[in-house]
Amino acid sequence: MPSDFIFNQTLEAIKAMPEYLEIGNDEQKYYELVDIVLEEWEDTGQLPDDYDTEGLRNKLRMEWRDIEQEQP
Fold first, then answer.
1. Is residue 38 packed enough to be buried (19+ CB in 10 Å), middle (13-18) or exposed (0-12)?
2. Are 61 and 15 in contact (CB under 8 A)?
3. Mean of the pLDDT values across residues 39-66?
4. Among 7, 39, 62, 70, which residue's Cβ finds the most Cβ atoms within 10 Å?
5. How many helices (H) and strands (E) does the chain have?
6. Which domain holds residue 22?
7. For the segment 2-34, what is each residue's pLDDT rounded down to a tens digit?
8. CA distance 19 to 56
9. CA 26, 31, 33, 34 torsion: positive or negative?
10. How many domains does the chain have?
């Protein structure tokens, strides 16, 4: 199970992306941002080699429901 610290840091990185403001209620675009951030973090070694990246990806995708409800 992904740690809350890494989850929160990843979510903050997604929300800081300029593209985040443009996703509106497009779930697929949000998923693309999740993949971009996780791939970058894997490539730069910010995640341990044995880290449950897929678990983090799934947790971030579930977070979409909460984010979507916050949108006007």
1. buried
2. no
3. 86
4. 7
5. 3, 0
6. 4-70
7. 578 888 999 999 999 999 988 888 889 999 999
8. 20
9. positive
10. 1
